[in-house]
Design goal:
708 residues, alpha+beta, Hypothetical protein af1432, 27 helices
Length: 708
């Protein structure tokens, strides 16, 4: 019976959907879930049908409706994804697989990482339809949460408020956002919910009477002024919103909140050619301000400056709408029918373009992709130079109103900032197909533009194209840049995890260190106490943070090795002069060069010797300018320093080194090592010309070993 009701509604509201395909998906899901029960004791099939029913309000296509009916089949039954693909095609299977991936989003406690969870949710669901199905799924689960064991209720409600309701708000889907928030309120703060519901019940009868009076007053005024095809509606503010206002004002009395309800004036859509015309909205606003008293600082123009999620409307709070019935201020919202639809279902309202209900036709996919790339470049340019926004915005949004010379100046500016002629051409051509707009947050604009008029139903969303979100084994979210690998992940978790890493596992499988991580994967780093980084890692790491930490580790090791090598060379020179070797405090350098030096400065002198920046002979000569090498008993002169053709790299022996053929280094010239991709260290003279073309991050300090 429940599917029969859904079927009838689809036939009435969306006759464009192929009902036969929905029947097929329902029959498959009913068979797969046969015998399964929900916590309520009802047949499980009720849940996917209700999810599809909720989804129907979000302008779905037939593939999304099929996926809604099938979304739990692979997770809760023995049916495999391959069987879904065989019976329903790649597109539906992809949506079901996307729902499987989103199942990882579970908050176990009040999590300070909620924002990262939200980002990961959106990043993993590249097809916007997956997000809509998941929100519908969560809404039905929240409606039936009272059947779930008590110990689970709060966790699910907290997760829903922190992730799902927040995402619904982010996408402007207020009808789902508001219901989710009120349901979460009921489970997270049951006492406050009960108290506020009781108080509101005593206010509701009066508020509904006031609301009916205000809507009647406005309707009569607008009809008298000759307005046609208008709708005037009242709506009560939802519970969670009232509760938050009470908390913000730190009061418990509802009388402190005068806007328990608002009145909406919904006008027809007007178009001037392809461009939306808002003049009639502002005319109505002026009419109301002439009749009633607007409150200062209570006017908001979300048409001139839409919210980040695309919400558009005029808001004004006025006195006098209540007549003799009430004297509190009343908020009036003025919008078009399209704006009202956007306010209810947000980004989902733009599917109507793809369904062919608006616009002049379908944009060619290549043109759409070109427009996407061009607008992304515009976004990046405005991020770098916000002072360019006025002229660039005019060119994008009001091209037809600009003088020819002004157009050419803007286009010249764009070309000078890295744009190609093809980018400009994509924007020019797209104006003939759709109205272009640079919203305050262009990411949201691009999110629905991608699927606005695509020839195939593949609307994608990627609000974080440069970021990925992966998980530790204990489900902590780690945010990385796109293209990151286990090396980047390890150093993002903790520096010592990176330094001690020996291998990495992704979803339980060992992967190479250059494996490119994907959204939602669980990454485990295996460490060993005596492990150490490899210099080659710095050429694999994608994040500057990981490369910096690897470099710092080796710099520290290099410092110790170079200081030890410098001590060895200086002691050799001192021995030649018959002097005692250096002590632990390097007291000999206490006043080196006529300057008082602390221990770190004395160690720096030795490090410079080890690096080859300072000659050990010259350093000792500065200390003892009038002394020369002593004779041994045999009568031989002790040569100050002799070198072997063995190389010490960062103070260590027996590393795989090769002398470079380009500069043919020989002792005692100053040298430097370079870590090659085959893990050898190639030794060059420090003044070798080939060094200029090499990666600086892979240089290692090296010097010739001295004879004992």
């Amino acid at each position: 019976m429940i599917y029969s009701a859904l079927r009838s509604e689809v036939l009435e509201l969306r006759p464009d959907l192929d009902i036969g395909l929905l029947d097929k998906a329902y029959a498959f899901a009913e068979k797969a879930h046969k015998g399964q029960k929900r916590y309520s004791g009802e047949p499980y099939i009720i849940h996917p049908v209700e999810v599809a029913h909720i989804l129907l309000t979000l302008n779905p296509d037939v593939a999304a409706m099929q996926a809604a009916l099938l979304h739990d089949v692979t997770e809760d039954t023995s049916v495999k994804l391959a069987e879904i693909e065989k019976n329903f095609g790649t597109e539906v299977a992809g949506l079901v697989k996307g729902m499987e991936k989103l199942a990882v989003v579970k908050l176990r406690t009040e999590d300070p990482q909620e924002e990262k969870w939200r980002k990961m949710f959106l990043a993993m669901a590249r097809d916007i339809r997956i997000v809509f199905i998941k929100l519908a799924d969560r809404l039905h689960n929240m409606r039936t949460l009272h059947h779930v064991p008590l110990q689970k209720q709060q966790r699910i409600a907290r997760e829903t408020l922190g992730v799902h309701a927040a995402i619904a708000s982010h996408l402007g889907i207020y009808q789902i956002k508001s219901e989710l928030e009120d349901l979460c309120f009921q489970y997270l703060y049951p006492e406050d919910h009960k108290e506020l519901s009781g108080k509101l019940a005593s206010y509701r009868e009066r508020s509904e009477g006031c609301m009916a009076f205000a809507t009647s007053q406005l309707e009569q005024l607008l009809v008298r002024e000759g307005m046609e095809e208008i709708q005037v509606q009242g709506r009560m503010k939802h519970l969670w919103s009232i509760y938050q206002k009470l908390q913000k004002k730190d009061v418990r009395n509802l009388e402190a909140i005068y806007d328990l309800f608002a009145v909406r004036v919904i006008l027809p859509d007007n178009f001037d050619g392809d461009k939306e015309d808002y003049a009639h909205l502002y005319s109505v606003l002026g009419l109301l301000h002439g009749e009633y008293l607007p409150l200062q600082d209570r006017f908001k123009d979300y048409i001139a400056a839409p919210k980040a999620n695309g919400y558009r409307s005029l808001h004004s709070t006025m006195l006098g709408l209540g007549g003799d019935l009430y004297d509190e201020p009343t908020e009036v919202q003025i919008r078009t029918r399209s704006m009202h639809k956007e306010a209810e279902i947000g980004i989902a309202s733009h599917w109507s373009y793809k369904l062919g209900k608006k616009g002049k036709g379908k944009t060619h996919v290549k043109l759409q992709q070109g427009l996407q790339r061009a607008l992304q470049k515009v976004h990046a340019l405005l991020e770098r130079g916000p002072d360019l926004e006025p002229c660039v915005r005019e060119w994008v949004e009001r091209f037809q109103y600009l003088a020819t010379e002004d157009r050419k100046q803007v286009e010249k500016l764009l070309l000078e900032n890295g744009f190609k002629e093809t980018d400009l051409d994509a924007i020019r051509k797209s104006r003939g197909q759709q109205v272009l707009s640079l919203q305050p947050n262009i990411d949201e604009q691009l999110a629905w533009l991608r699927g606005l008029a695509a020839p195939s139903p593949q609307p994608e969303i990627n609000l974080y194209p440069d970021r990925i979100f992966v998980l530790t084994p204990n489900k902590k979210v780690i945010e990385l840049q796109t293209g990151s690998n286990p090396i980047d992940f390890a150093y993002a978790v903790h520096t010592e995890v990176g330094n001690k890493m020996v291998n990495a596992k992704v979803n339980g499988r060992i992967v190479p260190f250059d494996y490119e991580l994907q959204n939602g994967e669980v990454v485990e780093i295996v460490t060993r106490s005596n492990a150490r980084p490899n210099r080659y890692w710095s050429s694999l790491a994608k994040t500057s943070s990981a490369r910096g930490k690897i470099k710092n580790w080796f710099n520290k090791q290099d410092k110790e090795g170079n200081t030890a090598a410098g001590r060895e060379m200086v002691n050799k020179e001192l021995q030649a002069l018959g002097k005692a070797p250096l002590d632990d405090k390097l007291s000999l350098f206490k006043n080196y060069g006529g300057k008082s030096r602390k221990l770190p400065e004395r160690e720096q002198l030795l490090e410079n010797v080890g690096l080859g920046n300072v000659s050990p002979f010259q350093l000792v000569k500065t200390l003892f300018p009038n002394e020369t090498a002593q004779e041994k008993k045999s009568g031989e002169i002790v040569i100050p320093t002799e070198y072997m053709e063995e190389v010490l790299v960062t103070g260590e022996e027996n590393l795989p080194v090769v002398l470079s053929a380009c500069c043919k280094p020989r002792p005692p010239c100053l040298i430097v090592g370079y870590v090659t991709r085959d893990q050898f260290i190639r030794i060059h003279k420090k003044n070798c010309r080939e060094l200029a073309d090499l990666d600086e991050a892979r240089f290692v300090s090296s010097h010739w070993k001295t004879k004992v």
